[in-house]
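Subgroup meeting minutes
Present: P.N., E.W., G.H.
Scribe: E.W.

1. P.N. recapped why we're keeping a running log of single-chain structure predictions: easier to compare across weeks, and new members can see raw inputs and outputs side by side.
2. G.H. added today's entry (530 aa).
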Amino acid sequence: MDVMPLLLLVAGSAAVAAAGRRVPVPAPLLLVATGLAVSYVPGVPDYALDPHIVLPLLLPPLLYTAATDSSYLDLRAQARPVALLSVGYVLFATFVVGGAAYLVVPGLPLTAALVFGAVVAPPDAVAATAVARRVGLPSRITTILQGESLVNDATAITAFKVALAAAVGEGATWAGGIGEFLIAAVGGVGVGLVLMVPLHWLRTHLAEALLQNTLSLLIPFVAYAVAEQVHASGVLAVVVVALYLGHRAWEVDFATRLQEEAVWKMVAFVLESAVFALIGLQLPVVLRGLGEYEGADAARYALVLFLVVAVARFVWVYPATFLPRLSARVRAREGDLSWKGPFVIGWAGMRGVVSLAIAFSIPMTVHGGESFPERNLILFLTFTTVIGTLVVQGVSLPPLIRLLKFPAHDVQAETLAEANAQAQASRVAEQRLDDLLADERNTLPAPLADRLRTVLERRRNAVWERLGQVNPVTGETVDDTYRRLSREMISAEREVFVRLRDGRYIDDEMLRTLLRRLDLEEAAAYRETT
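Output recorded in log:
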């Protein structure tokens, strides 16, 4: 097996993503554009998407990291709009886009058109979260988009299987399709509910952070594989498990949380970068099989169906947002709502690698050895839809949000709330310390007891100090100055330790111990002021 293309893909996509952090263009779009350009460089190998790799190996970890970063409580509060988008909209888009494809493309069978509709129905989790993080959407809109992107893949994959069965002549019916959807949904949630408690118990009872994080890396694949084995939705199983573990993350050891955060940030960065690069690299593979539809006809079909995909989302979003608000109870619970939020949600429906992976899973032939009707055309239209949404909607989304002038986050109020929470926790911790020191079994020298109180006081005061004014000379806030001075002091200590090692006064093992202690001090100083 030649691993060089894989290494080049990972290294190249990571380099482009890193460069994307220094330019105003969102990294996902830069990766797609680079992939498109590189795909025509002589000597570059074909990177054909294998759905047997993308769906079970790339989708679970991306869903897992997105779900653990989400808030179960926020998602529960937005359950209605999330359900209407992740289930209702995907089914609506399947029929609307599929019907449009049937009308626009001459000779395209209705069943094949519905297959295409199901393929491009789900906005992509990776695209939605990547753009949402970059542009700083209001928290409610971000929660709805994240919740939608966590669940809609399960709806789309099930709809795709039903449409595909009808297209290949396996006698699928509407009743059978609804039954399959319910079995997949209920089964996926059920598998997640069954797995989440024992996995959390195992996670909290492993002795070492290294073992706990090894388990963390395996969990999304285990949940996905178990659910798929019983013909349930692996996507929903991963999401349910991840939401539960994220909600109970405070119960694991601090070292596990620190390592897990770093590990999953790295995993998400590498996978997201490779996924967007893969989208761009698909162009030669798709065009090579287009056949009779090359030229202006294919471009016209692509443009019309891209517009249908974009408009259909607005056609669903606005009624789904405002019709429930005819209920006085809904209005009282959700308060006033302007047109701006639904507009951004409607415009943020970028498609991504999941649509391409589903499209590539369409079989080459059907029963009797006949080729699947217009498989290559569906691949092409999927590719152009994905690229169109990423480029048109992805590029325009940040300036659109700035133009709509959403209320900015009230940093002062958020800091005040954090300070009040820290004050309450500090009072309880101080009382706990007094109670413990009153027990003769917990005798502690006075300097060490004072140090515990000093650390607690510093943690309590650090948040309040963020409310201070900016230094007129340096332009730094109080916490900026604290962080800079702390790092300067630690840097001076680090240089001394290295000099002592070089002079053979201490060995490398002791140096690593001392440097780790400084690293933890530096991390603590950084976290106290962020």
